[in-house]
Design brief:
Blueprint (H helix, E strand, L loop, with lengths): L3 E8 L13 H14 L8 E6 L12 H11 L2 H4 L4 E13 L2 E4 L9 H4 L1 E2 H8 L6 E12 L11 H9 L3 E4 L9 E2 L4 E2 H10 L5 H20 L8 E3 L16 H16 L3 H14 L6 H28 L7 H9 L37 E2 L16 E2 L10 H8 L3 H13 L8 E6 L2 E3 L5 E2 L12
Parallel strand pairs: 1-2, 1-3, 3-6, 6-7
Antiparallel strand pairs: 3-4, 4-5, 7-10, 8-9, 11-12, 13-14, 13-15
Helix pairs in contact: 7-8, 9-10, 10-11
């Protein structure tokens, strides 16, 4: 059986400040206590009522500062209550902020000694959170007014909201920063608590309940006060997921419908962990059991999806792992390809002339030597020339010449080669010197010139 506890505090009378008397704070606390014990699954003995008016003065639970601190720091601690599922703290009365710290005004508080006799809200939160696994709800139906100022301060309540969010506590404020929480004489209650009890009977999800309160509280004030006033309830949760966590152990049919829709939407968005947690909430608060089977099937499906994602991630991590030794060196080897050095081409023979096109060389032909003469495919003999310009090429029927025969034919023997080389160097700077090329004696090739044409003026004695 779930263990749910609640502390409800309502203060009408302030011993040292009768001018701050309220009319219906005790009624608000009584009705919240009745709702929790009769409709919300809290046992009567688990709802501790601290009521501050003349009818309850002198009782053990009268809400003085020391009594409330004793209740929070001793009586409801885990050492006394053990593990509990849910813990509520409801306060209806005055609340103020001083020096950036929020206080609840107890029945015996002095306005000039707020910091000594006021109940710091952050200490209330710390005491509630001593139950580390419980769902904690803090409800403050109090004016969020700043003492010693004629105007309201926007920071009132900010400390409470920040600390509660940090500790994972859902906080419900009866009004926004700088606003009053109004009482309605026609209802004998405050507008906020009246709407809260009605709202909890229909909505137990924080986001749905907040929408209801923000519509209903202004409507009640307008209806019964005959004027429009600013009172905007606020609900603060630790996270978006907590906004879909029911405040009570039993959820309404409307809440269950919203939870199922949110779980399916989270699964479509591939937020599988959030979807699974919402389905667990459905199982936890669905007393009828109509959606339990669907929730269990959905959880099994989500666990399979989560397992597949984990397996895929594990495989991917293993495939990218590198050896532990010399990680940088190994990583470089894994990423960079082995460089391929292209073969270096052999240096070509130095070309003795920049002229790109080889030319035919006029060579005298002795009468005793039969030579086959071909016309060049790229250049024709000059018409009307007195001396033909043959191209010498090897032929199967041509006579094979030796080097000595070639030099003897030139007329100078060994000296003829020297003269030819000297002539070559002399005419090396010519603009377009003709080139003669001999691939292998006695064949002279036009494609690879090696000898320069000799002129009549420089070299004498050649048989032209």
């Amino acid at each position: 059986m779930a263990k749910n506890w609640a502390i409800v505090v309502g203060i009408n009378d302030y011993l040292h400040h009768p001018e701050r008397k309220l009319n219906y704070a005790v009624n608000d606390a009584q009705r919240i206590g009745d709702f929790l014990s009769d409709q919300a699954g809290f046992g009567t003995e688990q709802v501790i009522r601290c009521l501050g008016d003349q009818g309850h003065q002198g009782r053990a639970t009268y809400p003085t500062c020391s009594k409330l601190l004793q209740l929070l720091k001793q009586d409801i601690q885990p050492a006394r209550l053990g593990k509990i599922d849910r813990l509520w703290f409801y306060f209806s009365g005055h609340g103020v902020s001083r020096n950036g710290r929020d206080y609840l005004i107890t029945s015996d508080c002095w306005e000039s000694e707020i910091e000594r006799f006021g109940l710091p809200v952050d200490e209330v939160i710390a005491a509630l959170r001593s139950h580390q696994t419980a769902d904690i709800v803090l409800i403050l139906d109090a004016c969020r007014q700043v003492l010693d100022k004629k105007s309201f301060d926007d920071t009132i309540g900010k400390q409470t909201a920040d600390v509660a969010k940090e500790r994972g506590i859902t906080t419900i404020f009866s009004c926004d920063y700088g606003q009053y929480s109004y009482e309605l004489e026609a209802l004998q209650q405050g507008a906020f608590t009246y709407a809260l009890i009605e709202g909890l009977a229909q909505h137990t999800l924080p986001n749905q309940l907040e929408q209801y309160l923000r519509r209903q509280v202004p409507a009640l004030n307008l209806q019964h006060r005959r004027e429009r006033v600013e009172q905007t309830p606020r609900i603060r949760t630790e996270s978006t997921l907590q906004a879909f966590q029911p405040l009570l152990p039993v959820a309404t049919s409307a809440d269950l419908t919203v939870l199922v829709e949110q779980a399916r939407e989270a699964e479509l968005e591939e937020n599988f962990e959030a979807a699974k947690q919402i389905w667990w909430q459905v199982i936890k608060v669905d007393r009828s059991g109509e959606r339990v089977l669907d929730a269990q099937a959905a959880i099994e499906r989500l666990e399979r999806k989560i397992a597949r994602i984990g397996s895929a991630s594990s495989i991917q991590v293993k495939s990218t792992e590198l050896p532990q030794s010399e990680p940088r060196k190994n990583a470089a080897k894994a990423i960079l390809p082995t460089p391929v050095v292209p073969p270096q081409p052999a240096e070509p023979d130095p070309v003795p002339t920049p002229h790109p096109t080889p030319v035919s060389v006029p060579v005298p032909i002795p009468a005793s030597t039969p030579v086959r003469v071909q016309q060049s495919s790229s250049r024709s003999p000059v018409a009307g020339s007195a001396r033909p310009i043959p191209l010498i090429s090897q032929s199967p029927v041509s006579q094979q010449w030796t080097r000595q025969q070639f030099l003897k034919w030139m007329g100078f023997g060994g000296a003829g080669l020297v003269t030819a080389v000297v002539g070559r160097e002399v005419f090396k700077s010519a603009t377009h010197p003709p080139v003669i090329s001999v691939a292998s004696p006695p064949v002279i090739s036009v494609a690879a010139p090696k000898y320069t044409q000799l002129s009549d003026e420089v070299v004498k004695g050649l048989p032209f």
